[in-house]
Amino acid sequence: MEKLLLIVFAIINSVFISTSAAREFNFDGANLHRRSTDETLCNQLIKPAGYSCTEHTVQTKDGYLVALHRVSSRNKDQGGQRGPPVLLQHGLFMAGDAWFLGSPEQSLGFILADEGFDVWVGSVRGTYWSQGHISLSEKDKEFWDWSWEELALFDLAEMIHYVHSVTSSKVLIVGHSQGTIMSLAALIQPNVVEMVEAAALLCPISYLDHLTAPLVLRMVGLHLDQMVLAMGIHQLNFRSKILIDLLDSICDGHIECADLLTSITGKNCCFNSSIADLFFEFEPHPSSAKNLRHLFQMIRKGTFSRYDYGMFKNMELYGQLNPPAFDLSLIPKTLPLWMGYGGHDSLADVTDVERTLKGLQGKPELLYLENYGHLDFILSTQGKEDVYNNMIGFFRSLGKYSSS
Ligand SMILES: *[C@@H]1O[C@H](CO)[C@@H](O)[C@H](O)[C@H]1NC(C)=O
User: Fold this and answer.
1) Is 345 a catalytic residue?
2) What is the whole-number distance in angstroms between the Cα of residue 164 and the centre of ligand 1?
3) Mean pLDDT, to the nearest integer, of 333-337?
4) How far is the CA of 47 from the centre of ligand 1 (A)?
5) Can you tell me the distance from the alpha carbon of 12 to that of 296, in angstroms, rounded to the nearest whole number?
6) Is it the case that residue 208 has pLDDT exceeding 70?
7) What is the rounded distance in angstroms from the CA atom of residue 84 to the CA atom of residue 247?
8) Catalytic residue from among 133, 164, 285, 374
9) Active site annotated at which positions (predicted)?
């Protein structure tokens, strides 16, 4: 049993160590927790590229202090006139930095700012930019007692509310991966969707039972989620030195380590491997073990439901044996939706995307890219031409926004 656990840890950890460059990355203790105060997302990635950037803190109803970053192009910021607000919501084990890792011509965060949008970037609780709470510390296990359900209904809902009230405007939402699960769950809530103008979903996920990523399926089969929780691990932080060392000793010989990013996310056509150093400087961000468990429940059961606590606690919490489903048909038909998905995405499988589409009342605009994998949608070298121009065209077609 112990040996199995070690191997499993090595597997999940090695997901993020798929290049030799990353292996040489110095995962020292300083990286385990939030960086020093001047090491902010604005200072590290956004201002150096010549964009203006301000930091905002939003307090969620359950007491978390989460970061929002507001970005605009230097060129567009002079007249005081800001474009329509757009909120970017990142995926699992990532944070707001994920939208800024490529060049300004390649990265959606910069592109939207250059196109005159008022760009707001969320980072959910537990990521390096959002480790505050009114009473808990990230060392407390209670700090990690949440899954994407709370990220949707507390973090994202509060961020939308904040942007809506600062800008006095309805908000455009862009989500990637887990950010789309969160978006869909949030848009079902009438008090949230009323603040939203439209949503663009990259690699949309609500169902996960056709996921094909071999490494993820292996972890599900090994019940990694239950094991981690049974061991009393509540924060999933893949930068710990123990796990890196374990990986080095176990990885060779047991699994093919050269191409682990592919065996998680699918074959990415257009991810520039030269940015791996930068990528691993920021990713992976921590998440919670409970969140992993919730995602694995979706993979096992093919449901888009609230967290499954088991029959007795479900009965107590929900008044029924099984957790209630999130009903996609409650998203208003009138809400404009856009979705970009890929034929090589082994997490947001085409079959599952089609099931999501069937569940919705409205008909989203669709962009299907046969050769795109899961990471290409945020890190492609030609994302602007392949994906973002189309998305921006959708935003502009809503009629409310003149081209700037
Ligand atoms: C890949 O990344 C490197 C390093 O940032 C950069 O010099 C190069 O231009 C990039 N290639 C493409 C096709 O964007």
Assistant:
1) yes
2) 36
3) 98
4) 20
5) 13
6) yes
7) 46
8) 374
9) 177 (nucleophile), 345 (charge relay system), 374 (charge relay system)
* Ligand 1 centroid distance, CA of 272 (Å): 6
Tokens representing 342 are 């890929």
Catalytic residue among 18, 73, 130, 177: 177
Does residue 274 have its Cβ closer than 6 Å to ligand 1? yes
Is the CB of 275 inside a 6 Å radius of any atom of ligand 1? yes
Q: How much is the pLDDT for 404? A: 42
Topology (CATH level 3) of domain 32-226+261-397: Rossmann fold (3.40.50)
| CA 274 to ligand 1 centroid distance, Å | 6
Position 20 confidence tier, pLDDT thresholds 50, 70, 90: very low
State both tokens at 354.
């089609």
Each residue of 53-69: b (16+ CB within 10 Å) or e? beeeebebebebebbbb
Residue 177 catalytic? Answer: yes
Q: Tell me the percentage of the chain whose pLDDT exceeds 70.
A: 83
Instruction: Report the residue among 101, 272, 280, 386 best suited for mutation to probe ligand 1: largest number of ligand atoms under 8 A from its CB.
Output: 272
Can you tell me the distance from the alpha carbon of 48 to that of 66, in angstroms, rounded to the nearest whole number? 23
Among 75-89, 186-200, 324-338, 374-388, the least confident range: 75-89
60 lines ligand 1 (CB under 6 A): no
* CA-closest residue to ligand 1 atom 11: 272
Nearest to 343 by CA among 381, 386, 279, 300: 386
State the residue for tokens 């507390």: 154
Residue 374 has pLDDT above 70, yes or no: yes
The residue ranges of every structural domain in the chain are 32-226+261-397
| CA angle (50 as vertex; 159, 94 as ends), nearest 5 | 40
Distance 17 CA to ligand 1 centre (A): 20
CB of 381 sitting under 6 A from ligand 1: yes
Residue-wise pLDDT for 217-241, tens only, equals: 878 888 888 888 888 889 988 776 6
